Amino acid sequence: MELVLPEKIKNYFYEKLLKTQFEKFIAINKEQINKKSFSPILINSPNSYLSRLLIEKILNNLFPDEKNICVNYEHKLNTIKNFSFNIKISKNHIEISPSEYGINDRSIVSEYINEISSMNNIVTGNKKNIVVWNVDKIGEIAFESLHNIIKNNEDTANFVCVSQSLNKIDRSIFSSVILLNIPSQDKSFYLDFFRDFKDDFNVNGDDFLVNIKTSCSNYNFNSFLKNIAIFYNFELSSFNLMENSFRKFIESFYEKITSKNRVSDTFIEEIRNSLYELYVYHFKFDEIVNLFLEFVIRDMNISEEKKNKMIELACYFSNTSNLGNKEIIHLEAFIYNFMNIYFHVEVPVKKTRKTKT
Q1: What's the pLDDT band for 66 if we cut at 50, 70, 90?
Q2: For 174, phi and psi rounded to 5 degrees?
Q3: Helix (H), strand (E), coil (C) string for 66-107
Q4: DSSP reduced 3-state for 320
C-alpha cells in the first residue's frame, strides 16, 4: 500500500532542491556535528515532503550507522483530562505537530516539549532531537512558549522547526534559529525533471507539462509527488492524468480493509499508517470516499442494509470534514466507522501509551 519514491527520484530532489540547504547546515554546525549537536534550525518549505527529506538527511548525517524507524504513539498530558495527542518517535528523534490540537497546542508545548527537551536522551546520552511541525500554524501563546524553550534548552536538545509560510511566523524567532529555506518550484523545474527522466515516461514534453499542470493544480509540488509516486509504484506504461492509477491505488486500499476476517490492534495500526501515507501525498477526502462508495455499491459481499449505512456514514463525514481543516482526522474516523459496519464489531480503541521521556 505504501507509496514509495524511487531512490533516483529522492536523490534528484536532494541534488536539485535540498543540497544547498544541507550544505549550509553542515557549514554552520561543522564544529558540533561530531558531538551529535547542532544549532536550532527552521526549515521553511511549502512542500512537507521536501522538509521531511531534509530532516532525514540531517538525521542520517548525525547517525550514519542507524536506521531511524518511526513509531506512532499516543501521549496523554497530566494537566488536561481525557486529552491525548500523537507523536512519532525513534531511537534518535521525536516528531510532533502541536497545531493539530487547536488551543491545546499551548499545553503540548509548555508541558510536553518543555519536559522532553530539558534532559538528554536517556538511551544514547546525546541531546534530544526534536522536530516540531507547522510552527507557522500554532497559536501566539504556544509560539512564544516554544521560542523560550528553544533558547533555554539548547544544551539538552537539538530543535528542528518546520513551517510552510514564513509570513505567518513572528520574526522574533529568527534570533534563535538558523533558517533553511527551500524555494518553491516553478515551470522550469518540471521541464528539467522531464528532460532528466524522459526515458521513464511514454509521452512528449508538452504532454508531460499539460498532465502536470492539469492534474497537479498548476504545478503544485505535493500533487506532483502523488502522481509521480503512483506512476512508479504501479509501473505504468505511460504518464497520463493518473485517474486510472489513482483508482487502482484506492481500490487496493479498499481491498486491504475488506480482506480481513476480524479487526485487530495490529491491523488498526496498519490502516492508520496507510491513511497517513494518503495524507502525505495530499489525497482529498472526497476523492477517496467517492471511490469507496463506488466499490461498496458494486461489492456483492455487502448487504443492502450495510450499504445504506455506509452511504449515510459517508454523507455525515463529508459534512463534518467541510466544517474543519484537518481532513486526515475525518478520514480516519470514516474508515474506522466503515470497518465497524463491515465487520459487525466495535473497532477497538487503542489504549493511550505514555512514552518515556
Answers
A1: confident
A2: -70, -10
A3: CCCCCEEEEEECCCCCCCEEEEEECCCCEEECHHHHHHHHHH
A4: helix
Tell me if 349 is assigned to some domain.
no
* Domain identity same for 211 and 264: no
Residue 118 CB coordination number (10 Å): 15
Give start and end residues of each alpha helix (H) in 135-238.
140-152, 187-197, 205-215, 221-233
Report whether 168 contacts 149 (CB < 8 A): no
Question: How many CB atoms sit inside 10 A of residue 169's CB?
Answer: 20
Instruction: Kindly state the cell numbers that stand for 31.
Output: 564544529
The mean predicted confidence, pLDDT, of the chain is 82
The structural domain count of the chain equals 3
Q: Which domain holds residue 202?
A: 187-226
Residue 238 pLDDT class (50, 70, 90 cuts): low
Q: How far apart are CA 258 and CA 249, in angstroms?
A: 15
- What is the C-alpha separation between 325 and 239, in angstroms, rounded? 31
- Residues 166, 50, single domain; the answer is yes
Spell out the alpha helix ranges (H) of 205-303.
Answer: 205-215, 221-233, 243-258, 265-280, 285-298
Q: Please check whether residue 233 lies inside any domain of the structure.
A: no
Q: pTM of the prediction?
A: 0.70
Strand partners, 87: 73
CA atoms 95, 97, 101, 107: torsion sign: positive
Cell numbers placing 37:
549537536
pLDDT at 203 over 70: yes
Render pLDDT for 241-297 as a digit per residue (tens, 0 to 9): 445 566 777 787 788 878 776 667 677 777 777 776 666 555 666 777 878 888 888
Spacing of C-alpha 71 from chain mean position? 13
% the chain with pLDDT above 90: 36
What the block records as the C-alpha cell of 352 is: 493511550
Average pLDDT over residues 147-160: 96
CA distance 313 to 307: 10
One domain for residues 92 and 175: yes
pLDDT digits (tens, 9 = 90+) for 104-117: 999 999 999 999 99
Q: Which residues contact 207 (CB under 8 A, 6 or more apart)?
A: 239
